[in-house]
Structure formats: structure tokens, C-alpha cells
Amino acid sequence: MTDIMQFFWDNKDLIFIIILSVYLGIEVISHVPAVLHTPLMSGSNAIHGVVIIGAIIVMGHAEDNVLALILGFIAVILGTLNVVGGFVVTNRMLEMFKKKKK
């Protein structure tokens, strides 16, 4: 227990920054109009491809570390799902604006 408290005490500045950034992110996102929500989210999901590249790099450097391989693989799968989902949402949104054929 003292190790955990020591960790928090040593990293109190970083923990404060993380808590502040979470609060700021929630405040910014909650004030986005509903009309902009879908395009912004689909664009940010497409940018999530950077996580896929990072996960592939982590997996490439994990020689005998099984935990790094597993976490890298999970990150690749979840990042890929996020990117594909972003493009699917964008495609559905753009289909709404196309003229329907008679």
C-alpha cells in the first residue's frame, strides 16, 4: 500500500494533468452541436490509424515479451475496428445527402 501511495505522491503533477485534461475534454465535447458530432467523430476515428501504426511498432520491438505482443495485437484489432467504424459512419452520413433514384 505504501508503494502505491509513494507512486501517487511522486507523480502527483502528472496525475493532476491527466485529471484536468479529462475534465477539459468532457467540457469541450459536451458543447459540440449535434450537427457536427458525426463528422467530427468519424474524422477522429479515421485519424485513429496512428494507433495501429504504433501498435505494429510495439509488436515489432517485442521480441520475447509476450505481454507486449498481446497488448500490441489487441491495440491493432481495436484500432482497426475504430478506423473501419469511422469510415462506415462517414459513408452512411454521406449517403443521407445523395439524391434518391426513382
Please explain how this structure is put together.
By secondary structure, the chain is mainly alpha-helical. The chain has two domains: 1-31; 35-102. The chain has helices spanning 2-10, 12-30, 34-47, 49-61, 66-96. Helix 3 (34-47) packs across helix 5. The radius of gyration is 20 Å and the shape is flat. The N and C termini lie far apart (70 Å). The mean pLDDT is 83.
Kindly list the characteristics that best describe this protein:
about 100 residues, mainly alpha, 2 domains
Would you summarize the structure shown here?
The protein has helices spanning 2-10, 12-30, 34-47, 49-61, 66-96. The protein is an all-alpha fold.
Tally of contiguous helical segments: 5
For the sheet with most strands, the description reads: none
Tally of structural domains: 2
Query: Which percent range fits the helix content?
Result: over 70%
The backbone outline, from C-alpha atoms, is flat
Structural class: mainly alpha
Uncertain spans, ≥5 residues at pLDDT below 50? Answer: none
Number of strands: 0
Rg over CA atoms, rounded to whole Å, is 20 Å
**Order of H and E elements:** HHHHH
Q: Tell me the fraction of residues in β-strands, as a range.
A: under 5%
Mean pLDDT: 83
Q: Ends: how far apart? A: 70 Å
List the helices and strands and how they pair.
Layout: H1 2-10, H2 12-30, H3 34-47, H4 49-61, H5 66-96
Helix pairs in contact: 3-5, 4-5
